[in-house]
Specification:
By secondary structure, the chain is mainly alpha-helical. It is built from three helices and no strands.
Length: about 90
């Protein structure tokens, strides 16, 4: 459980201003956040494999190197390019 004094100390360290009328609600909210964090921390580390609901799975393939177009053919649309690259001009 976190106290209002601890909330004020955290606010000072964070250089935040916490109005008196918001202190009680902020303390309750922070207590809920910390309780949720404790729940997560106490959860088991054993993880079950998720197979999905539809029975589908990812299909991976090996990378295959394929022949590309010649650089001159690609750059012909930009007037030959600049030093073998597409020219990209600064936008304003």
């Amino acid at each position: 459980m976190i106290t209002e004094e601890e909330i004020l100390e955290i606010a000072v360290l964070s250089k935040l201003y916490v109005p008196e009328e918001q202190l009680e609600q902020l303390t309750k909210d922070m207590a809920e956040i910390l309780a949720f964090a404790d729940t997560i921390n106490t959860a088991g580390a054993q993880v079950e494999v998720y197979e999905g609901l539809d029975g589908l799975s990812n299909v991976f393939r090996e990378d295959e190197v394929e022949q590309s177009y010649p650089i001159q053919e690609i750059l012909q649309n930009v007037g030959g390019g600049e030093n073998g690259y597409f020219p990209v001009h600064k936008s304003r």
